[in-house]
Amino acid sequence: MRRRDLMVGAAAAAATLPRVAAGQGARRVLKFVPHANLTSLDPIWTTATITRNHGYMIFDALYGTDAEFQPRPQMAEGTLFEDGGLTATVTLRDGPRFHDGEKVLARDCVASLRRWMKRSPMGQKLEATMDALEVVDDRRLRFRLKKPFPRLLNALGSVASPAPIIMPERLALTDPFQQVREMIGSGPFRFVAADYNSGSLSAYEKFDRYSPTPEGRPSLTAGPKIPHIDRVEWHVITDHATAAAALQRGEMDWYENVPVEIQQLLRRSRDITVERLDPLPSTGVLRFNFLHPIFNDKRMRQALLPAISQADFMQSIVGTDPDLWRAGAGMFTPGTPLANDAGLAPLLGPRSLDRAKELLKAAGYTDQPVRVLVPTDILAPSAISQVCA
Predict the structure, then answer these.
(1) Which terminus of the chain, N or C, has fewer Cβ atoms within 10 Å?
(2) d(C-alpha 224, C-alpha 231), whole Å
(3) What Cα–Cα distance (Å) separates residue 269 from each residue in 31, 263, 366?
């Protein structure tokens, strides 16, 4: 329910880079404060969003997803569907190379996708519908399906963690439940392993031989990714006030996923721009432990609904600014036919503590304790999910 914002110092894309470029021989460096520490490097081994983002710096994929959530070719030239959708042949562009200079071949893609399928829910669904995934020649790979899989291209361009990035075959043959230790991709930046210090710094250098797709304009993970920066540095600053001060002093250019109270401070600066990173809401979740008392009884779970006000929760996290949150979100939106069909309409009306108490009493509640857990290591509201036990 909270929209994710990111902070970009006006000195980032608009001011600092042109000034740096003006200096003869000066290298253009972007300094970025990520939302979390990069503890694991393999974007297939983990579902961590920070590692997914790191992966997109280094690796490329056969397809990307644009801002309209449509798949678009990246490393692929296109896909030919035959036999009523039971055969799909993906053809690679002639151009992509890995950071070690080797051309990207179909066998690299097949090995990478097979590894991804073992870890990704979307990949597992795709794998279950396949008879085979095979190399046709250096530039073509073929899916042979038991039944049509209409979302094949969406799967190949998925942005969910883990994303179907392509790595060299020798690395992709690593057990999917073991981490790949060498970061060799074909993306716009090379990972500088010598500079990596977990908890402090991750660095990326521009890959001069990167081959961007010629199709369209940049949009989400689709379109040509043309780096105009020589080096990107991720500086881990866990204290938000310290990160904000570094941004204000010009020591950092970009600060991601900033707490609301600090956003309010930074909005006052004429040299800092606040931009929305994701047009979709980031929804906090209250999940009941339905395996054990008291919430193994559906009546107990329903009894709490009249007592809960989404607006109260959101205002306690992000403040009263209506542009930063929304209510009326959930599995069954209040006032919709789904809520009525589920028998929840009487429970999703105006907030009523008295009604909640009546329902709890009718369900047999006495004085059992209820614990609320917040399992997260990221101190950002968008990362919060709560569990009632």
Answers:
(1) C
(2) 18
(3) 19, 10, 53
